[in-house]
Amino acid sequence: MPRHDPPTGLSPAGSTWLFGAFWLMTSLGCLLVNGPWAGFHGMLIAAAGLLIWLSPQQVPLPRLWWCLAALFLVFASTVFLPAHWFATPPWREYLESLGLDTGSRVVIQSRQAAETLALFAIMLVTGMWFATHRASPTQLRIWSLAFTLGVAAYAIISKTSQEIPASGPPAHFGFFPNRNHTGTYLAMGSLCGLGCVLQALRDKHFLRMALALAATATCLWAAAGWSVSRGGIVLILIGCLSWIPMLGPRYLGKNGIWALALLAITAVGGFLISDSGVKQRLTDTLGKTAAITESPDSPLLSENPKPLDQAALDFDFRIPVALDTLRLIREFPWTGIGAGQFFYIFPQYRNLTIVANDADAYHPESDWLWMASETGIPATLALATLVALALWKSLAGISRGKDRALRGACLAAAMLLPIHGLFDVPGHRITLAWSAVFLFT
Fold this sequence. Notes:
18 helices, mainly alpha
């Protein structure tokens, strides 16, 4: 929650219940995320609507932000324009030649696209509404610690409620269907917790520091020992490398530097001596990378190397699925194929992925590629610009006030979502998206 104090005249008590309600909504949502899709999203949308009705906007956002949000929705809606205004892809012509009516619009399944786009709009408007509220320094400390405690509770409940197999691969950890989304959530809790620890140390509030240490240690141990997501470990490293430069040695002081160094040594040492699934997966990835790089037909060493697309197949499935998705985007650069349509249209563009993996592809392993393929390049650029401006404005305010450690950690944790969105799809999880908004605000 890296923001400034609420303006004079706003009720701190009113903000407190709002932050508490939003925290409770997102925390429970992460625990119930594997429930029935319609009931789960209906519950969250109803709760968000009630909060918006009870607590209207407090501080106006920059007009440019609202313009970018409106542009995103307008550009994403161009998929409902007549299909004959644009070039018709060969696969659609072929279906029409077989007598299958594909409709008169660019999007084939208009109702489903409209419903999914409405969900995008609700997620975006709710996030921007919540960003109009400001946390006081006291609220900042309370709810950032509450967020870390919530993530730690998520990890403990996940661990105690899962079945541990006697042999074979490790059990799925976490309530998110995708293990990398649990890794994202744990990384966000770890970064926020580190900020809570350092801020409590500077405030000389040792009870809060003890709670933050316990919760942060739980999040870190869950990411390194219980989870099998490599992404969670990488995100923690990226977050720390983003957060520490925001502080600087003068702000940290000798005690702060020693505290961070001790935490880093403890975390790295614990990870190295542990025998965990994620450590084994990281070791296997490094070994695979070395083997591919040193092989006789490596693109780096061989005089007659494999083509880059074939080398990509050998390395990671994300690369061929991204290349195939780019082929799709090239045919629908302005409108996209329609929100919620990737699963149905992407099979027409599978080339590299059909060789690497014949399983169904529900998404292109990237939030940003997924958004570009379904809503078009202009809409995705508008959304990316909005996110970049919001993060930049928040970063510019980090150096003001005495809460730089905590506000910087919250911002770094929120930044993990769009960063991880380059290589996975956590941003399409409504609870993770709103958790990032909670930390940003």
